[in-house]
## 1
Amino acid sequence: MLTLLAVAISSFGTWMIFNAQPDAPFWKKQIIGIAISLALMLAVSFTDYRKLVHIAPAFYIFGLALLVVVLIPHVGLKINGQRCWIGVPGLGQFQPSEFMKIPTVLMLARYFGRPRSTALTIKEIVVGCGILALPVGLIMLEPDAGQSLTYFPLLAVVLFLSSVRMWLVIAALVLGTASVPGMWYVGKHTGLIKPYQQERINVILDPENADRRGFGYHTWQSIVTVGKGGIKGSAAKGDASQSALKFLPEPHTDFIFAVTAENTGFVGCVLLLLAYAVLLTKLIHGARRAPDRTGMLVIMAIVGGLAFQIFINVGMALGMLPVIGVPLPLMSAGISAILSTFVAIGFAVSIRLRRFVN
Amino acid sequence: MKFEDETQNLKARMVIIHGLVIAILAVLGVRLYYLQVVNGDYYAERAENQRIRRLRIPAPRGAIFDRNGKLLVDSRSTYNIILSREDMKGRDWNALVEPLAEGLGVSPDILREHFDEASRQPAFEEVTVKEGAGAADLAWVDAHTLEYPMLLVREQPQRRYPDNGVLAHVLGYVGEISPEQLKQPKYKDYTENPYHPGDIIGQEGLEATYDRYLRGQDGYREVEVDSRGRIQRELADVPPQPGQDLVTTIDLDIQLAAEEQLKNSPTKRGVIVVMNPQNGEILAMASYPTFDPNLFSQRISTPEGRKEANALLRDPLTPLFNRAIRGRYPPGSTWKPLMATAGLQQGAITLKNSHLVCGGGITIGNKFTRCMGSHGAPDLRTAIRVSCDAYFYRLGLKMGLDGIEKMVDEFDLNKKTGVDLPHELVSWTPSREFKARFNPRDPEWRDIDTVYASFGQVYDFVTPLASLRAHSAIANGGRLYVPHLLLEARPVAEVGPFPARPRRVFDQTEPKIINIPEDQHHLVVDGMWAVVNEAGTGTAARINGFDIAGKTGTAQVVGLGKDTGKNKDHSWFVSYAPAFNPEISMIALIENVGFGGKFAAPAVHNVYEAYLAKAHPELADHSAETAKNNPAAQGSRSNPSANGPAH
């Protein structure tokens, strides 16, 4: 069921990539990517996740090594000022920061997966933060703020489910919410938030009056593209799309949701969101039936990561959040992203399968 | 849960996460609903607007021809080389001066001036490097696109008017429609071919009167562009429909002859209008000084052009002013044929007894108003021929103010002529109201005022065109035609969505008929014939074999005795020919030169020559000889003029 849903969403995504850039090879690559991912996912599914968790430190160290390698000039490819790709002859490029999520999840699950009866200790929290800090720090060096942001929900979910004290959770939430305006004020006046970053936020607060040709351009064009889709979408109308005319930037990756919205309208988008809801719900159900705490944590961390990415990406496409380069799981073009998502789901399947075997 | 771990509400915490996930997706769904369902149409329009561009294809404006098909005005493409300020950001203007001046053949000083000016102007205003660029300049720009990417070539359809201000007041000029004009009902409510900001429209003269004929229907290309404005495909291509060509009643040869006369006059100021008295077609309308309409159609966008235009507006000699329809001058003795016709008509004098005393003048109360000569008791024919003022004093007194007012009304002198030019003024004519306004200290109308009004001074101020129209009615036996300049607007075929536009002609209504009995008409015309052909005041106009009838006039600018220098009298001559079967009528006014017979009459003579050369070449040869004799003839007749103030 999970597999089918994942394949369905990613196929839908491939169609949208085709719509976004019919002349570019992205959609063909995506099909190949899905095929490879599917094979790898099945392999993971039929492997006992506990064995993999057991050797998680090896994966983790290997991943960190790749994150270091990517920083080396000439090995790591610099695209748009970010050095986050490693070129592999014959295969293209891949993004270690995408893959690194899996070992990080496994490490966290391994560490927090022991049966527990008490609340988290400070030491445990510090170790958890440490596991996260290493990859996040390396990714920040690329620099890729968006990608590193997606690591935080992994830890947050794990901590939350590992009996972190409720008052800590609430305190963190309150503190975080309260500090936003304060940080905005301080950042604006000290220059830490640069004018273009301010503009990216202004366009969300007031898209009509912001600088729509400058730094607000992406957000505004995305809003227009989404809105233009209307109820049924404009795919049938034969109009040249926003992406074909290059009004919409990065249509096949970051703004794939806007393309979906333009082509399939409200109906298509709601169906997609429903599909995500079903997928995530299925995963959570799987977590509940996991044979052990480790399995549960793996799945829930994956859920947290996926939900967070969906929220950031779609929120950005809908002009609710500033532009942050985070791919939409299963939809955005990119073999690395599709591969890591499928593998993550593979783990969930493996964990579900284990409950019978156990 | 398979594993037993109910501590810390694990189950509840998972439910919280699940709820959070669903909530997030729901929030996204709501936002989606807002963007796509609630505001979908709005954003669709926004997308459309940035995707589709309508590129206007300006329609060529109709050309203007003279009655013989000679081209007077057309539009041609000219090219301007401009600097794009966008590409000048952060570049040194001064470094450009030398290479551009050399490459394009412009003075470096002028360029520097332009650049200086540019630094003070708003950023959207273009910086002109060279106007009216030639093929070599365009090639130079093309060859240097890499070095000077900021140079752009702009095509501009420009209206080309004749050089030297020929026919300027009649043709008028075009200019950009002003925001005020856009609000006027004349432009705002014309839905057939709507006016838009930036449109070039006729602002003066025939260009303004017949703007709707001359203007074409703009076509357009509707294209789809990408985010960089590059055209992706064409959605629609609607070719423009050119405007209608105008054929005017003007005969360019006669016009040029008329302008020549004014240009060569001592003050270089005046009016000559030539008309066909049988239908009101204007063959020539010259007003001097003149101006260059090209200034308004071509150079007005440059600082120098604006300076030039302001100088024209402030010029005390009013070169922009069409004296033929806006100049109000005392008619002087050219008023007399009208008085004579009305006097006979009203019975103040009769054919059998048209004698009135001259007596060298008249005494009203204790004031003696003299005649310029002593003519005994002349009959009407003689009175016209020698321009006896005292005769007309008495005629005016017999007719009374009411009689004069009736005459004014009959000859439409208190109305616009209806000529197809904008801004025509109405003449001022004698009336009790006019005196009250004119002389508030003595508002009562007195007999002396009637005397003044009866010989074309003090209370009479007519436009040359109104006067010519009235005299043309005397010439043709009482038919007042509306003078006009439009012969036809040529038809234009249907183009795309624009329907064909039919041929148009001037909408000449039936002429107003003034009842002048044939014998009375004959007497007045005979008197006017004698003016030119029988030792009258206007013999300088005489052409052998072509019976010109006319009347001189000398309009007082200031009181008697002060008529020297720049306050000299205006010189008039009004005429038509052949006297008893007129095919052409003509009026001339030369400002501040003195006696009518000495300046206006010879000017008219020479314009008649130009007419004869075309219409009656057999007479033209003949008259060339008389022209040679003219100076001598003129001298012999200049004596009477020294005697009196008004003719």
## 2
Amino acid sequence: MRLLTLTAALALTAGVAHADLVFPSLDYRTGPYAPNGIPFADGYADYFTLLNERDGGIGGVEARVLPCETGYNTEKGVECYEATKGEGSLIYQPLSTGITYQLIPKATADNIPVHSMGYGRTSAANGEVFPWVFNYPGTYWDAASIIVKHIIDQEGGDVSDKKIALVYHNSAYGKEPIRTLEKLSEKHGFDLQLLAVDHPGQEQKSTWLQVRRERPDYVVMWGWGVMNQVAIQEAASIRFPMDKFIGVWWSASENDTRPAGVAANGYKAITMHGVGDDFAIYDDLKTHVYDKGLSAGAGDQHGTVLYNRGMQAAMLAAEAARTAQEIHGVTEITPTMMRDGMEALKITDARLEELGLAGFMPTFSVSCDNHAAPGLGAIQQWDASNQTWSLITDFVAADREIVDPLIEEDATAYAQEVGITPGCM
Amino acid sequence: MFYREAGEFKTSYAADHATFPIGFDFWRFWVVVGIAFLVVPFLINDYWEKAILLPFLIYALAAIGLNILTGYCGQVSLGTGGFLAVGAYACYKFMTGMDIHIPIGGGEYWSLILPPLNIALCVLLGGLTTAFVGVLFGLPSLRIKGFYLAVATLAAQFFLVWLFNKWEWTYNYSATGQITAGERDLFGILITGPNTEPWATYLFCLTFLFIFGWAARNLVRGRIGRQWMAIRDMDIAAEIIGVNPMAAKLSAFAVSSFYIGMAGALYFAVWNGAAEPTESFAIDKSFDVLFMIIIGGLGSITGSLIGAAFIVLLPVVFKNLFVGVLGWPTDIAEHLQIMTVGLLIILFLIKEPHGIASLWGTMKEKLRLWPFPY
């Protein structure tokens, strides 16, 4: 009981104002999703440490990262949200589609922006219906369409006699691309097979037995956490050709391909940013963060795909905060100002160059009509002998003819269900 | 000294049969209820509501449900997660307007389309639907017992979760398979949706727990409850003295599932606002609720509440202590929390195999004799 009173007192006094910019990090370093959660969380934290150490924060105000362990579990994610929102949190990046779905109505009611970077609810791309939710630089439906485009390129333009199987995490996350793939299969005439894998995904024997029996020409994967490495190992054990196995950008890290060893050579995945640590920012990170012993976590994830992605998430949040500071002319911004900054965010080549991230990602600008700009993706391939990823295509656009009407349809349905009158803020 | 029968004079049988025959107990109970209804709602914020009180109230209701089946009637069930899902999905269907179409041949359909119902009614109907499903899955209990029945209910768990993934009608054909609770109100006060006030949802769940906790307490003291306990203690003997095992077992399944169904409905509609079958109602939910009643005390309504508090609150308390007060890294805190909770469960089971409720009972016995124990 005494402990309870203690926490009670703690929870009640938590709302004290601080002169800093608060970036909660709903991360996960435990459980079956930790192999993917850790590098992202490290990258996220290290980027803000760099800003604090090198520039003294954003616009002179220190950034404070507020970590909260969710274990990729929605109940814990909501608890983290409730626990941290009183601390002046500017933006939520929950790194979980399930948690994002929970937070969309809650954060909208509390007027705190949510940035589900390449995950979450795809129709949040429509800023008129989802003014508080952003998913730039791309959505699952973009990813699905770009992957199919790549398959069509591989097949020389015709896939009408091909079979494509989707191996997906049986959750809101994994089910997200199904509708787009169904539309694409109607358009291009390929046969679509759906193979669900239940949480946490350690047991996939029956799934891959089905792949072996049905012999799809391509397997597309929407996996996360331990499910990724198990799938790649299972695919290797049935000798499925790796260059015909294509993951979404969340099934595309070193931690997913390494366990399968050389058998994973040639595995492909879509990505939304560049690979490796050949960017000028890594010199700054080394001087200001790593060499000072300020690395988050164990410090062994530098330069990996998901570390880069965590850094990208932090960079986009910091840039949005900077934009908000410029728009409103104050340094200590509120979540509402943060939202304005996100909607006016412009990532240009010049700015990327300044940040030491030249060529790291395509340029884009966010607007009320399009919260998911630019919707581009490139295909990366794993080289098992060098243990590196390399980009094998340019950043290409999704099939807007298919994706945009679907977004419109889903957003309109949501607006009706919840009773929102669409409009820009 | 103050906790004793001496000086408590009863003038009617009804008074003698009261749940709390000792005056002090009686007043203590009402003080707790009074604080819960009249003081707590003014003190809580979103965090207290969403992370502590709602989970406690909802899991307590589910634990009472499972305790009726397992603790009172002796039928082990591992299907709690599945039954929670039935409650949640039924509530969702009633919230959004139940539509049933039954083909009657010749391409014709017999259709029943209900308008969206009041949220309190939806929760009750969610419970009733689950009671019906529970009876269906309770049928094997007439033939099999113990571990074998546990396995049969395990099948219910996996079947129901599969069903809600597969049967698109249950989630109104939503693309992601998620169900989402829209805004619903009771007497003009929002109960579901993102814009609710903490006190409103808290009082809504508390009222359900209070009314049905009260009902359960009186049910288990009455004729039906005694039948359940007779079946639990020795089913053959119970049959010989005239207890109908079919009626007793199936009524236990029905009542138990009714409670669990209501808990599932509240879990989805009021607490989380959205749910997906694989994550929200997986097998670990069944185990959580089973642990609650084992730790709290089998065959005790108080035990269900204590067990729910133990399992729900301990992780939150440890998290706040380790991360909030001591400032440890979140992953170490999480791992340590898992270990500590596990250790405490083992410790409690060794020290008090009949659950914390029996500790509470021993304390009351000691209080009666205090200050001259013998």
## 3
Amino acid sequence: MKSEGTKGGPSAVGLDVGTSRIVAARQVDQTIKYDIQLNAFVSIPYSKMTENVLKKEGVPFSVEGSDIIVHGNESERFADLLKKETRRTMARGVLNSDEPDSVKLIQAITTSLAGRAEKGQKLCYTVPAAPLGAEQDLTYHDVTLRDMLSGLGYEAKSINEGLAVVYAELESTNYTGIGISCGGGLCNVCFAYLSVPIVSFSIAKAGDFIDASAASVMGERANRVRILKEQSFYLNGNFDDKFKQVVSVYYDDMMQSLVNALRNAFTGARNMPRLSRPIPLILSGGTAMPKGFRDRFAKIMVESEFPVEISEIRLAADPLTATAKGALVAALSDM
Amino acid sequence: MIAPERSQEFHNAAHVERRARKIDDPVQRLKYLRAAAAITEAPKQRTWAVPAMAFSIVVLVLTMRSDAHLRAKPEIRRVTPTIRMAAPEVPNVWRVEAGKDFEVYSNGLRIDNQLAVSSRPRSYQLVPVEEGGKRLAGALVTTPAGIVFHTTESHQVPFEAPEQRNLQRITRETLLFVRNKQAYHFVIDRFGRVHRIVAESDAANHAGNSIWADAKSLYLELNQSFLGIAFEASMQADQAPINEAQIHSGKVLTEMLRSKYRIPAENCVTHAQVSVNPGNMRIGWHADWGKDFPFQQMGLPENYELPLPSLFLLGFDYDPVYINATGTGIWKALALAEERTRDAAGAKGIALADYQARLRRRYRDEITTLRYRSSDEEN
């Protein structure tokens, strides 16, 4: 990446605010530096000894009444140790209305990743598109995040997650193609033509759906399923292991839903530019990372009789950070 | 790579794509595409000759606001129209006091005349903007038609009190150099002081090969027809090119000149907007103030967005170097100029390349006439 932002000004920040993780991207010299934290927390009953141990270990936490709140990456370890579920600041791609302190916790995680802004520092953060079949109002989510980030001193603007994937990966086609971010709460899709978003939507089947569905079948905690899934799961359609078989079934379900939604969206799209050449499709996000995901998705796409010719289906160079990179590119291009 | 055959929204996509491919930097490329997309969706404006239209270009700005509101039904993302506002009216400015070495004006402008020199008297012929338009035989104009803003691109030290002596030394050396070259009519130094260099009645050597046009006339080689105001500044510096004092002085000086010569706002432009290289028929031989010129703080509309006459009237082209040296405002102007060129070619039923070749022939004819007249006068 060559651009260095505003001459002499503070570097821009790209922030992917996902249901599972928050990723910050920042340009350092000619490379991009990423910092990642889980967007989760766990509460532990307060004791002076626990507080001292956490301080000694350098674990980020806050004290809320009679609880100690451990947030970010460490929350998962503590939840596993205490055999508790981590709690989420977000659900299905937006702020979790069941967690009244969600904004405060996102702010704490963001501060640990990006710090407070220098004067005039720009930040672009991701927001989902409206889910198909659940046209909830996303204004509250968007405005609340913007206010929170402005409170940290940033000049903050939002960008659709799928569009961020396009900005991160499709420079070679002049930012034309389909970007998909398969996250925890949602799969976000954006088709952009010459950088302009034409079709954007999301579906509410993603990583959390797989974890929760598999957990209910296996009598396991969803958090445990997620850890196992990220550590050892791969998709090849032939399993002796029950865990892998169950997870595979729900992965298939998610991919079928995603491809169906894509086909319907493109079939029904009005004012679609006439494309004289095939377009690329990029998969990103933590849920797209298991081995075999791309091949399985490509097979379902081929079977779907998709109305637009696709030139290639590939994973983003780094599926976990692509969205944050795209948000950074958007922030830099806005300088 | 992906070119729509025909689409209302993206009818110039192939051209935009080709241009974008020449930009290596991904961020700059994205900037260009977003600017081009904004212009692509702007309503067409076909009558450049109507004066009022020059101030009412409707530019649709593609913002980076959330598109989270795109609903389940796929839809074209619409952009927000913003109306280009007319410039604020020029206040009536008059000279209040004049001493041996200074002048003071009613808007607070103070001009230092200590370095003022004469050059050759201003005199130029008006060229009708329409090809083949009627010329007023023998009518020569001696008042300036516009202003070109420059940077001196001189050495810069930090604008801090400990650098006081260096700052003054560099300013003095810059002013003497400019005076020796008769390079500008005015220089605004880093302390905001306005220095008259070349007399307003004379031509200065500030713009060389350059082109601009307003609703009625085409101006070539703007040394004769436009005043040159230079800010002691560098576009290569890490900080903003000019400071508050310079901005204020630029504003009151521009007000005075516009008031005195009735200069229309559309004729107040930057060097990067007018400079051309006839050797390769590309624009941007000089690119000072290719971006970041504070038009609005000068009491002017955002003139960066005016389509460049060098492209749509005289067939010039631009390259990636120019894109890199300029900002989104000029990119919008490029897109508008290209669209205007295509429309004109279409209206005449001529292939675009043939039409551009015809425009370039016009430039050569006009410049030959201009130089013939100049040499005739000298004889």
